Each structure stands twice: as C-alpha cells, then as structure tokens.
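Scavenger receptor class B member 1 structure dump, as promised
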Amino acid sequence: MTKSPKKEYFGVVQDVSPNLTKVDDLVIYNGTTYQHPPLSACKDSMKKRGLKQTSIVIVLVALPLLFLAVSLGWIIVPCIIRHEILKKAVISPEVNPELYSAWIHPPVPVYLKVYLFNISNPKEFQNGSKPKLLEMGPYIFRENRTKVNIHHDDATNDAITYEEHITYHFEQRLSGNAKLEDKITIINVPFAAAAIKIAHDLPWPMNDLAQMILINYKESLFIEKTVEEALFKGWKVPFLEKIEQDVGFTLIPSNEFGFFVGQNDTEQGPYTVSRGSEDKSSLGVILKFKNQSELDFWTKSSTCNQIQGTDGTIFSPFVQKSTVLRLFNPELCRSVYLTYTADTDFEGIRGYRFTAPASVMKDPTEGDENRCFCIYDDDEKCLKQGALDLGPCREGAPIAMSTPHFLDANAEYIENSGLVPHRHKHETFLDIEPTTGIILQASKKIQVNLILKRVNGISSMSRVPEMLLPLVWADECASLDAESKGKFQSALFYLWLADFISKWVLLAIALIVSLLLITRKLRRKGVSLPPLFMSKKENSNVLSGTKGCEYKNSCVREDDTSEVFASQQVPLQENHSS
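structure tokens r here:
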C-alpha cells in the first residue's frame, strides 16, 4: 500500500490518497481522493473566533454603556436632585419664595383639641378619697399662626428674627355636642395654688399674713365654671390682687385665671432662627428665644437650659431613621426630642414616624440626663417619671406638665388619678417625608396637672390626697389638607420619575443597545468556514492552488449534506488500490 501524501488544507492537515476506500467524508476528483475537514473542526473554529469577538465587543461597547448608565442613575442624577433640594432649603423670598410664603402664613390648618377633667365627687375628694374624673370634650379650636415683625440679621446674613401672632377660633361644627357654655366642676386652681405656695414656700410671717387673706375671702376649693371661662375667657381673682398689695407676692401677673388666658390674639417670641443659607442642617433651628440664647429657669450652666431644635413646623431635608428631631417647646420651658419608631403611610405618601420616647420625661433622680430639671437638692421633692415641674418658669406655681393620662409615667400617677392611657390616642408623634423634610401630619399632646399638697391652716385642704391632679389636656394637631397634599404629591412624583428614569430606564436602554451592538458586530464579522462539500469548480480551484478560502457562513448543517451532495458534487466512486 502506498503511503498517503499529506497536504495542508485551510490550516488542517489532510490525507490525500487514491487507495482509500472510506466514502463518508471523501471527495474523489480525477481519481484522487481527498479527506475533507471534519464538521466538528468547523464548529470549534467558529466557537473560538465568535467568543473572542464577543468578548472584545462586550469590553469595548457594553461595559462602557453599562458603566455610564449606572453612574448616571446611582451617582450623578441623585446628586443633582439632592443639590437642587438642598439649594431650595432656605428661608428666603429670593431663593425659595414658595417656602418663605408658607413659612410666614402656614397653609396647613392647625387645630387645638382641648379636654377638661370634671370632678364628679368634690366632697369625697376634699376628705381624702380618690377623684372621679370625667373627661369632657374635645372642644376644638382652629389655630392660626402668622409670623410678624420680621427682621433679617445683617451681621450674619443667616439669622432671621420674628414674632408669631396666634389666634384661636372655636369650631362648633367640629366639636359636635361639646359647647363653650357647658358647665364644669373643677378645683379652684388660683386658690389651691396660692394656698400651697404660701404654706410651703413663703417664710414666716409672710405666710401667716397671706393665709389670713385667703381665709377672709372664703374661697371654696371647688368651683363651677363654663368651659369658655375655664379656657380663654377666664375670671378675676380678687384675693390675688390683695395678697400682691399686702404681701408683695405675685402668683398670676394679671390676677386673672383661665387655662389659656392671655394666649389668644397675642404675639409669642421674639424668635431668632437660622435661615439655612450656610448650614442646611440648621434650617429653622432656634438660635434665640426672647433675645436669649439660653434659658435661665433650670440649674445654672446645664443642658436643661439649652435651646435646641426648631419650633416643630420646619425641618431640614434628607431625614434618616437615625436622625433625632429636636424641638423647643415654650409651653414646657424646655427642648424635647423625637426618635424614629416606624414607617408610615399618609394617604399614599411614604413617611417616617417620630415619637417622644419615655426618656424625654425620665425621672430626674435616675441618671444625669434630666437631673437639672429638678432644682431641689432633696431628691424627695423631685417629680417622678413622666412629669415635669413647671414651677421654676411659672412664678413658682405648683403646676406640672405630663403626657395625657400619664402615658409612660410612673404607675403612682396613673393609680391616683384613675386614668387609663392609650398610646394611639395620647402619644405625641410627627410623620415626616424623609427626602424633603416636609411634615405630613403631627400631634403634640400635653397635660396640665396641679401638684396638690395638704395645707394644715386651711380646712378645705387639710385632708386632700397629695397627688398630681389632672386639670386639662390638649392635642395640637395638623395634617396636609387636600390642596397641599396634591401639590406635594406632584412634586414627589417628579422626583420619583427622575430617579426611576435615571436608574432603571437608562440601565434598560444601555442593556438593549449593548445587545444590539453585539449582535450587529457579530453579523458584520461572522466566522468564515469551509462547506462540507464543494462544487467541481471550487474543488479544481482549491486543488490547483488558484483560489483560497473565501467562505462566509459556509458551515452547512449535517442534515443538509445529502441535498448539497446530490446537487453539487460528482458521484462518489469506490477506488481501491493495492
């Protein structure tokens, strides 16, 4: 048998012999048999070249597009949105006239819901029994706040000073059956407070003289008043004027009492706040109250005297769950803080709920945080968890503030009053949209209590239980109205749309364009492979060396070989040689 010659055929070494008898992959031409490259070699060559070209296209085209989309969607556009929001977060008629106008005249309606405690067993209570308290209300008032006497601080260019004009209008429609003419039996607060202060705070002989004046006026420990008198209208207290004249002791400056006397149609302040032009995190933060940067009610040089936070109507944008919202409350004569408790949904708008933790009214004898709110050296005189003695900022009056129904307060206060706290009804909260810092709804709840003590020299007070006696509690609440909510939702939608397009739409476009470019590139630079069978002309060109390989998309399927063979090739012949 003669040795089969070897010939290189398109990069593949072929066996060329006239003596071969195998016909499955042979082409016989002029008596000479040639072995074609196997189909598997054709496919492998295509795969390797295709993968290499695909990798190059991905590196040069797809990855840059994806990088651009991710950079735009997750870095550049969010930074632009953040910058625009922060740029508008300033109290300035030039930079943000809409915010400035809303800051002066808040468009969101604010309501004051007032609940009074009627004492149903005054005689038994006077003789030492627990009080039977009947909660009356709510008596709902529309609260209007307008900033007046506005002055810009030329020295810093960031501070603005103003006073706040406040009015209250009774809303009978919202109050339902609760009317201002309703009668209520309450403890005679001016009489009881004066008797307690005289007996426990005034030195001898001033206390004896003042007590004689009280006795001569024959004041009763309990009185019946209308709700209107008990709240804003008030009533004259003649014995207070007499004590002020003879003893020089002032309990109520106007000698007129009502829980909210002097607070309607009046100005509060002045406040000096940060405009947020230099430090966005300080937007609306109170710098001074009544021209003082610190209070002077509590222990000197203590954190309790620090004025911290805003007035609760404005906050800087981009609020985090870890953010501590600080507010200054003139009614409490102190600053308080709120912490995140839950995600919330206000009519389709996502927000964070912040509430006042129990630690805000922590027992001053338990740790240093609130110790400065008790001005006494003797811890026994300090109020317990959940109550704040307002004597230092209320002319020494025996008045304490607490949460309604003593929520989160010492169990003793709850037991003595017979009240039942409910968190959903009595908890202070604030719902805020985190991106813009806009308040969705808020509810500030405070209860006023009398620090009731026995007074031996006055028979009507010699046997009363010593306790915190609830007098009234109020819920100052606000939420976005329909018009404000509609405008705000539109603004939030455009923010969401910009964020969505910058992230997902750009990313989807980048992926689609990348796939199209890869596909087009592969089609334009397709793999050139030889066919399984060649025509006579092609074979003669190859064998004569006059024509090279110019095959494009020439790999035929195995199931097509019979048709190609029948139409293009010369008949196979058995060619045996010894």
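Residues 39-88 form the longest helix (50 residues).
lmk if u need the other ones
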